[in-house]
Design a protein that fits this description.
homodimer, 330 residues, Dihydrodipicolinate Reductase, domain 2, 2 domains, seven-stranded parallel β-sheet, 28% strand
Chain lengths: 330, 330
């Protein structure tokens, strides 16, 4: 009998709960603790909180230190998107000797925006001999790991271009709100200027692609603009009239000697007609790939759960998806 | 200045030479020796033999032991498709303490057909602290590593199905001959029954997918049939009249409890109208992927050259592509 991987859940919002549900289906994992500060969740059984049909026998606690002191090989961390905000949490986990897989978008490649803090966390992880990886569908897979993996079949690569279109009409209300659905274009631009509306992680994806390709970029640029409704759009949560905002279109660019080496385009809108992931590799040979079916919420939970095994096996340190062997659904 | 990876070339036929040409373009590799038994190549400069515009300053030798005694981190091995035939060569290289990346098709997953011999080679590689990996576009990437990597975005996977169509009209004469172009259907079936006509590696790809997915298969089946010309087909080497053979269609199936869990279909024909790589993942979510542009010869050389770096870095043993971090063109 193989020993199960003992897991502590840290953060049971929608994404953390979704990751936990995937791990709950797998016989090789068991939950030994759960942290969340939400009073509505504290004291409840993990099974009830994450929406299983059975109780797990582990209660959610807000006593972080006490939970982290338990024996476990892995913490599934899902509390926020910004590296500097979650860094103290990660440090506390690392000091308890636990490996971490996290949904924190910026942690997918924290060197992109916070190289010194990333080096610090890397040193701390090595000192305590644990592995830390931030991942998810995007950043973490669809716009970085998968396109880089495709270049394996190329002798040379001049440019990597990715376009991802997300149909936000079927996503959570929180996500529809985050992309500005229903706003005026003016309000959108103001909110975007305050960085209240944006997908977090495009710079990290650009930097991950550069890391995977061994390219040293001169600059990473991000731009953002609203997607405007041409007809009335109705979702479960919003009604968007024509000329109002249905979502966001963002570009991330990696520049080297004045040239776009990496171009990532992300559209998330409630009126996207079709969702897809498209990759163009300019090189020897040129490649074109079109993938249909990747779903933001389902797939983020999948990538995190699928990466868990690799994180437990990997060498110590703050790693990226570029450092791990093939991640698969198992 | 980073120290270059010193490489010995072992086997300078068309594929070995193509791999060498890719490594020759990269500043981080240098050739320190080359083995080939062909009298036409022995004594010639590697640059002349592999078709570079410049000499390399290293001569091809048939004194295998002498060449393998040189300092080098890696041997690029390209002498044959069958594991048991090349195993003595691999053992000799391993005993000289060199890592190996090989184009040997069966070596991509030698446990598929020769588990005991594979275990032996694995033990020898570990003893001498070197890494051995067999790879190429197929087996090694298009029908195994890449489909498995796509499942990272799935919570559950029920079935992996891959279809690869190769336009053989633009490939080497040797390959066109190997797939039976120009034969009668009867002669094809006889030659196929003697295993003289077939793509080597489909069973290995099925087993690689199973390995990546953590599936223990009950059985792996291979079937083969001719592709028949419906009109006259002319290539640089063959003219195929209607009703004669233009190529091969092969299936590899991985069965578990009577169900096809893995279905790989490979068509290589001189009248293939379009070349593509298509993947269907049945699971949560379902995925469909279509890639255009992967080229057999160019991409095999690419995969081998791109894997070289990962082989030098990896832990000792006989590994598969499932064990290596993301391979990319760099």
């Amino acid at each position: 009998m193989t020993k199960k991987i003992q897991v502590i859940l840290y953060g049971l919002g929608p994404i953390g709960a979704a990751c936990a549900r995937v791990l709950a289906m797998r016989p090789d994992y068991e939950f030994v603790g759960a942290v969340d500060l939400d009073p509505a969740k504290v004291g409840q059984d993990v099974g009830d909180v994450i929406g299983l049909s059975e109780k797990v026998g582990v209660k959610v606690s807000d006593k972080t230190a006490r939970v982290l002191a338990k024996d476990a090989q892995l913490v599934v961390h899902a509390t926020g998107s910004y590296f500097l905000q979650v860094k103290p949490q990660l440090e506390q986990i690392i000091k308890q000797g636990k490996n971490i897989v996290s949904t924190c978008e910026e942690l997918s490649n924290p060197w992109a925006q916070h190289p010194r803090a990333a080096d610090e966390l890397n040193a701390l992880a090595k000192k305590h001999r644990v592995t830390v990886v931030g991942t998810g569908i995007n950043p973490g897979y669809a716009m970085d790991t998968l396109p880089v993996a495709m270049t394996a079949v190329c002798q040379q690569v001049k440019r990597v271009r990715v376009k991802r279109v997300v149909d936000a009409s079927k996503r959570r209300m929180q996500l529809q709100k985050k992309i500005g659905a229903g706003m005026t274009a003016e309000a959108f631009r103001e909110a975007a200027a305050r960085q209240e509306i944006r997908h977090v992680g495009l710079s990290e994806s650009v930097a991950l692609v550069a890391r995977g390709m061994g390219w040293t970029l001169d600059q990473i640029q991000e731009t953002i603009e609203p997607v405007i409704a041409t007809k009335r759009v109705v979702t479960d949560y919003f009604t968007v009239e024509p000329n109002f905002v249905t979502g966001v279109r963002q570009w991330g660019r990696g520049l080297y000697e004045g040239e776009d080496k990496i171009i990532l385009e992300l559209e998330m809108a409630v009126d996207a007609e079709e969702a897809f992931d498209e990759v163009w590799i300019e090189g020897t040979p040129d490649l074109h790939s079109l993938i249909k079916g990747i779903h933001g919420d389902i797939s983020t939970a999948a990538v995190v759960a699928n990466t868990a095994r690799r994180v437990v096996q990997a060498k110590p340190g703050l790693l990226t998806m570029m450092d791990l062997p093939v991640v698969s659904a198992r």
